[in-house]
Structure formats: C-alpha cells, structure tokens
Write a structure and sequence with these properties.
Elements (H helix, E strand, L loop, with lengths): L4 E2 L8 H5 L1 E2 L13 H52 L3 E7 L2 E6 L8 E4 L7 E2 L6 E3 L8 E7 L2 E7 L5 E3 L1
Antiparallel strand pairs: 1-2, 3-4, 3-7, 4-5, 6-8, 8-9, 9-10
Length: 168
C-alpha cells in the first residue's frame, strides 16, 4: 500500500517535491516527514488539552474581572471619603445601573463627575443596582452592602457607618 508523506523541509525541482509531497518511489531510503496518523494524534492531543484549559481560563477571566472591578470601586469609595473630609463637602457615588456608576456627582465647582463603566473589566456587574453612597464632611456615609459578580465569582463590598469600605 502506497502511503503519502508530508515533508516539512522539501527541496528539489519537481512539482511534487516543491509541494512537499512524496510518493514512496521518489523517496530516498531514509524517509522524512509525518504520516497522517501522526498528525491526527497531535490534533487529538491538542483537542483534549483545549477541553481542559478553556473552562479554567474562563473561570480565571471571571475572577480577574470581579477583582479588578472591586479594587476600582474600593479605591473610589476610599477616595470619596478622603475628599469629603479634606474639602469639607459631600461626595456622592451615584450607581446608575448594574454596570455603571458616577463618582463625585454634583454641580459644585470641584465635583469630578467621573463616569465608570464596569464592562471595561469584562462581565463584572452588580447583582442589583446599589443605593447611592454620599460621604459627608465628617467622612460618614449611609452604610450597607453591594455585591459584584462575574460568572460564578463574586465579591461583597461592605461600607460601615464611619465610611470604611472592605470586601469579603
């Protein structure tokens, strides 16, 4: 039975050699290249490895999305508290949807009105639209919890009455 081989380093001037295909008659005594079965085995191994790696990558991506969104929100909560105390004014974080909020809303001359979109972190979103948080000039705030989630990963952020934020 004639088997065709694919030679990755073919040379020569015939049309078959330029295409990298040899028949047993044109091969030297030392055959080179890969058989179809060898190529199929490599494809199967790559397929098995992909079925193992893709779910792990998806879980990692969700974990990173929640982690990044949580760190950004925690930073804004802490910055709002410090700004409220330092500038002796109220600073509000307005949660407009499950995927967006506005930091330092207001009509004052120093208000930043920075809009944050959580979709920049992937699939991270709040499980429900949180209550707006307003830090007063003493750093206190309306306390409560909010949960960020992406896939099966989630972080709960808690703000206590004195304005300190932490997550679990």
């Amino acid at each position: 039975m004639d088997r065709m081989r694919i030679d990755p380093n073919s040379s020569g001037s015939t049309r078959l050699r330029q295409a990298g295909v040899f028949t047993p008659l044109s091969c030297s005594s030392k055959q080179r290249g890969f058989t179809l079965i060898e190529v199929m085995i490599v494809v199967v191994i790559i397929g098995v490895m992909s079925t193992i790696a893709i779910p792990a990558f998806s879980e990692w991506r969700d974990r990173q999305a929640v982690r990044s969104a949580t760190q950004t929100l925690m930073s804004h909560l802490k910055q709002a508290r410090v700004t409220a105390i330092a500038e002796n004014r109220s600073v509000t974080i307005d949660f407009t949807s499950t995927t967006a909020y506005t930091y330092d809303t207001g009509a004052c001359g120093t208000c930043r009105n920075l809009q944050m979109d959580l979709t920049q972190f992937g699939s991270a979103a709040f499980t429900a639209v949180p209550t707006d948080r307003t830090f007063n000039s003493r750093g206190t705030v309306n306390f409560g919890n909010m949960t960020l989630q992406a896939g099966a990963q989630s972080n709960q952020i808690t703000i206590n009455i004195v304005g300190r934020a932490y997550f679990q």
